[in-house]
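Moderator note: this is an archived Q&A kept for reference. The question asked for a predicted structure of one protein chain; the sequence and the answer are reproduced below.
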Amino acid sequence: MQDFKREFERRKALFVDQTSVRARDNHYWEPVVITREEIDAEIARLAALPRPADGRRQSLIVHPSAREGSPGLAPGIQVMMQVLLPGESTRPMRHNATEVNFCIRGAGTTTVAGREIAFSQYDVWNHPSYAVYAHHNDTNEIQVRFAYSNVPLLQHMEVYVPEYDVTATGAAMEEVPQHVAADPKRQNPFGMFPIGTDGGLLMPYETLINPSAVQSNPLHFPWQSVKKELDKLEALGSDYIGRRLYMMYNPVTGRTNGITPNFFATMTIRPPKIVDRPHRHVSAAINYYFSGSGYSMVAGNRYEWKAGDLMLSAPGWAVHNHASYDDYVYELTIQDQPLNIYMESLLWQESLKAPPALLGTESGFKTNREKTAA
């Protein structure tokens, strides 16, 4: 940790009269397409730099509407492009953010939370919060990764805590500590108990500062294994009204359906000439297209994309749908749906002809999969 003592200016809070005032309109971020050519040029620029002391050749991909001090490609999603040349490694670090890592070029190895993950192009893996990690390029080719994280949200809250050049050894950094052993002298003898008649409980301080610990592990989703299952979804046929995808699920996220507590990560296949049904959701979505080409309609605007492009494809609560041209499209989508489910804020409108639902709190939607193939 850094300094324990800080100097604060003595200030007063304000009363802002809101009598009969309604909430302001949301500031919607427009879709942006970062082209393959732009990405390739930035990769070349990073690769040409002298080797940095910490090994991190990296650039943030930032939306022009990003707030000062919390640069993201969506309000709560940071995308960092990271480059390693053959033989290079990064110095170990950890932070209180969670990450989804995605290799777009080359291969290599990541050590995270005491585990070694050997990855190849289009593999996906997660980093638990506060786990020590380092990346290595033990190949003869350049390595390029996207790291998606919730850093902008933490920066907006002013609680982002990174630690650099930490040691990668030590059980305290690699394992979730076990609960403090029960000591009758330090425990509230009454425990938790009901208050009122509608199910609420009173929880003592001893439980508040020692919640149940859940082991959060790094999970690796190799592209070649995922692709075999994904390709089977083509058999759903042209009458299928859902999206042909699989979510890479981390059981620690429970009912919020994520790869991290903030994000889900899905791999999608779009057969040629498939047009999705328009829909919308509060969660923001970022797509990386690594095969094929097509277009997206977002709030009445058309955006063309091709393999190698990265796109903020669905700003929160904007009506959108996607379509493929003559080739098969494969894409990774990162979306902050799990966070919104947990916050009870995930409004989702699967069909514009039906009302939205608050997913995770009330019943959601169905597809017609039982009437189609596969």
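Archived answer notes: The helical segments are 36-48, 151-156, 171-174, 205-208, 223-231, 337-342.
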